[in-house]
Design a protein that fits this description.
The chain is an all-alpha fold. It has five helices and no strands. It has one domain.
Length: 151
């Protein structure tokens, strides 16, 4: 019986498609505040590209490139980025996530600074959603055994 991750055609197609999917995900994240999309949608697309990598290859191959420790760090980094941007706004005297006030520390006009603040939030949400999707997929497919090294 041929396992799915031993198939050369599937692996070759995935090697071509995964960078394109990831590029589209980054586009959705970066343009989320100007057009439909954003951090959550782009994070889902980015997570789906890593899940496709898991399906085309095996879990051990994926864990060498994107370990559980890195995944947890990415979840924490995305949440931290979101929180820090909001706290900067509060410390400068505005409401939480009111990006217009950040122009006091970044020497640009308030409209551009607001767009940069929104982009930072979208990036944080995208990173978190992507990493959580990969964690959920790994936990569901291995019944949580991947964390113990049993897979």
């Amino acid at each position: 019986m041929i396992r799915l991750y031993d198939d050369l055609i599937i692996q070759t197609v995935c090697r071509i498609m995964i960078p394109l999917i990831q590029l589209f995900a980054l586009y959705v994240i970066a343009h989320g505040h100007y057009s439909p999309g954003g951090g959550f949608q782009g994070g889902c697309i980015l997570g789906a590209s890593f899940i496709l990598m898991l399906i085309a290859y095996d879990i051990n191959w994926m864990k060498r490139r994107f370990s559980e420790d890195i995944n947890i760090l990415m979840i924490a980094f995305g949440v931290l980025l979101y929180a820090v941007i909001g706290l900067i706004c509060v410390l400068l005297g505005a409401e939480y996530l009111n990006y217009g006030i950040i122009h006091k520390i970044i020497p640009l006009d308030p409209v551009r600074v607001r767009a940069l603040g929104t982009l930072g939030i979208e990036i944080g949400v995208g990173i978190t959603v992507m990493a959580v999707m990969v964690s959920i997929f790994l936990n569901l497919t291995t019944f949580g055994k991947h964390e113990k090294g049993e897979v």
